[in-house]
Amino acid sequence: MIVRGEMLVEGTAAGAVFALAEPLSFWGGFDSVTGKVIDHRHPDLGQCLTGRIVVVAAARGSSSGSSVLAEAIRANTAPAGFVIATRDAILTVGAQVAAELYAIHCPIVCVSM
Q1: To 10 degrees, what angle do helices 65-75 and 89-102 make?
Q2: Whole-angstrom Cα distance, residue 27 to residue 65?
Q3: Of 25, 62, 64, 67, which residue is the catalytic one?
Q4: Closest CA to 11 of 103, 112, 101, 90
Q5: How far is the C-alpha of 74 from the C-alpha of 87, rounded, in Å?
Q6: Residue 97 burial (CB < 10 Å; 0-12/13-18/19+)?
Q7: What is the pLDDT of residues 48-100, one digit of tens each?
Q8: Which run of H or E residues covers position 96?
Q9: 29, 42 Cβ separation under 8 angstroms
Q10: pTM of the full predicted structure?
Q11: Is 64 a known active-site residue?
Q12: Whole-number Å distance between alpha carbons of 49 and 17
């Protein structure tokens, strides 16, 4: 099997891989202070994503999620990076803003199989 990827946000990352059971909205579903999933309807409620490589088919949610991700990157509570199967502007903008404002990189790669 060949997996092809496109870097949406450049960078390098290392960490344990964590596959989200379903898409997560960072606005209201993720706590940028603790790095934990806080959406009470999400199957991964309570899981800490800090420092992990998060694998998810797609993201979900409000455009405000970009600011939550950027803040988590600044606070060092964000995932180390993302592997996603569907292009996502919300995650991408959050990671790009953090790279520009704080010079901290959270790479995002979009893969297809």
Answers
A1: 40
A2: 4
A3: 62
A4: 103
A5: 23
A6: middle
A7: 999 999 999 988 878 899 999 999 999 999 999 999 999 999 999 999 999 99
A8: helix 89-102
A9: yes
A10: 0.94
A11: no
A12: 9
